Amino acid sequence: MPFVVGVAPKYTKIFINNEWVDSVSGKTFSTINPATGDEICKVEEGDKPDIDKAVAAAQASFNRGSVWRGFSPRDRRTLILKLADLLERDADVIASLEVLDNGKPFAGALADIADSIEMLRYFAGWADKLTGQVIPSNGPYLSYIKYEPVGVLGGIAPWNYPLPMIMNKVAPAMATGNVLVIKPAEQTPLTALHFCSLVLEAGVPPGVINVVPGYGPTAGAALSSHMVVDMIIFTGSTEVGRLIQKASGDSNLKRTLLEMGGKSPLIIFDDVADIDSAATQAVDACFENMGQCCCAATRTFVQEGIYETFVQKCKEYAMTKKVGSGVDPNVDHGPQIDEEQFNKILDLMNSGVKDGATLQCGGRRQGNTGYFIQPTVFSNVNDEMRIAKEEIFGPVQSIFKFKTIEEALERANATTYGLAAGVFTKDLDRAIAMSSALNAGTVWINEYLSNPGFGMPFGGYKQSGVGREAGEDGLKQFCEIKSVIIRSGDRQID
Q1: What is the pLDDT of residues 407-428, one digit of tens each?
Q2: Can you tell me the distance from the alpha carbon of 203 to that of 57, in angstroms, rounded to the nearest whole number?
Q3: Where does the pLDDT of residue 489 fall: very low under 50, low under 70, confident under 90, or very high at 90 and above?
Q4: Adjacent-strand bridge partners of 141
Q5: Does 144 have pLDDT greater than 90?
Q6: Which of 44, 259, 288, 469 is catalytic?
Q7: Can you say whether residue 17 is alpha, beta or left, with left for phi > 0 and alpha for psi between -120 and 50 degrees?
Q8: H-state helical runs in 319-363
Q9: In angstroms, rounded to a whole number, what is the distance separating the alpha carbons of residues 54 and 15?
Q10: 91 near 113, Cβ under 8 Å?
Q11: Average pLDDT taken over every residue of the chain
């Protein structure tokens, strides 16, 4: 499936109650191609009045007696599967739009669409399978629990995986009977808006899915603090996650589901089965999506006996990465998302050199157009350097040396984050012990970033998150649990 040459966005308005509308203010904003720095198009800029309209539409669609509340679990399953089929039909167009808007290589954009489709189909399967439970009672009672939808949900999505990070809100929300107002990232609104056209085509009732493009401090803040919104699902930085939790406390104490930042360790022991494969995976684990990945393994800890060899292999592999426009099928490393992120990464790379880390390769801008940064490898990094502590969100690998398992564990856990971790070793006992001792929501063993399916929950310890996404655990985050106790009478049958 090739990139669609000449692809252009068709949908640039706000989507409320199954209608395309202009912003109340009349404002628009530009969405930029990060490979060129040029404007792709202008998009309607939502703000508080637009969020208010979207929330009102969502609330109306959730009210008892509405069309949506009349949908059976089977009806919801069928509808979600139809959305998945339509997304599959338009995969080449949507992926091509993502290349323009996000910059990632076309193969990566197609993988995003495939994940989005699988997510929809996975949660569609849950729509008619989420069951309650009868509880043994002390007395003449029938006691049971049932799961009900939370209500009006606000979804705030990031720019690194734009469509999958919207689908991981849409799919479980619809499966459980909720309604949504979504604010896509201002850097990447185009695929979210194209998805709205599929919402119309699939026959989703008005108000169930609403999409309001806009900025975080305006549209995002209005959604987070809205008194009618029952829950916020957010994917993004820890800094913004704090603001969302505060907005919840300052408004109606809405529940929050937050998947946030990371500074994930990947620990390579000197008994690793295949050092070449381990080095390749370590680099890819760091440079995935141009390093713009919340669980990227940005701290590579290597045992001293293989340290120098491992660093050399990482350097050699990193230098094979072809940097360029995602339109080119031979490119495997595109631009950073925007100028702000581009400048932040350059500043952190400069700090690494200044603080005394050894720059093995990269460390500079690639070319003169767009937001391209060379894949960068640092060795001789210590734990107090900025590149060791701050989430860079760019193609920067920091390689640390360690001696003992105890040292590796202590240093790996010495962070405010806890999203993911990885361990490479042939020693199964050590692998299991490390997986238990690492403070991370996901631990990979002799692998990194593999996705065994959406039945596995995902989320973080510490400041990397609140709650879990995916799997049955993630699905239940979208539900209220109701306890029902019925007195069944005093009559006894012998």
Answers
A1: 999 999 999 999 999 999 999 9
A2: 16
A3: confident
A4: 487
A5: yes
A6: 259
A7: left
A8: 339-354
A9: 8
A10: yes
A11: 97
Only one residue has tokens 């494969």, namely 277
Q: How far is CA 458 from CA 265, 267, 425, 479, in A?
A: 17, 20, 23, 17
pLDDT tens-digit profile of 356-413? 999 999 999 999 999 999 999 999 999 999 999 999 999 999 999 999 999 999 999 9
Rounded CA gap, 189 and 213, in Å?
6
Residue whose C-alpha is closest to residue 54's, from 208, 236, 252: 208
Q: What percent of the chain has pLDDT over 70?
A: 99
Catalytic site residue 259? yes
Whether this prediction's pTM lies above 0.85 is answered by yes
3-class DSSP state of 456: coil
Q: For the chain, how big is the Rg over CA atoms in Å?
A: 24
**294 carries an active-site annotation:** yes
Task: For strands 442-445 and 420-424, give the pairing.
Answer: parallel
What is the distance in angstroms between the CA of the first residue and the CA of the last residue of the chain?
A: 70
Contacts with 208 (C-beta within 8 Å, 6 or more apart), sequence order:
58, 61, 68, 174, 179, 180, 199
Neighbours of 116 (CB within 10 A): 28
Which of the following is catalytic: 41, 294, 295, 479?
294
Cβ proximity of 84 and 48 under 8 Å: no
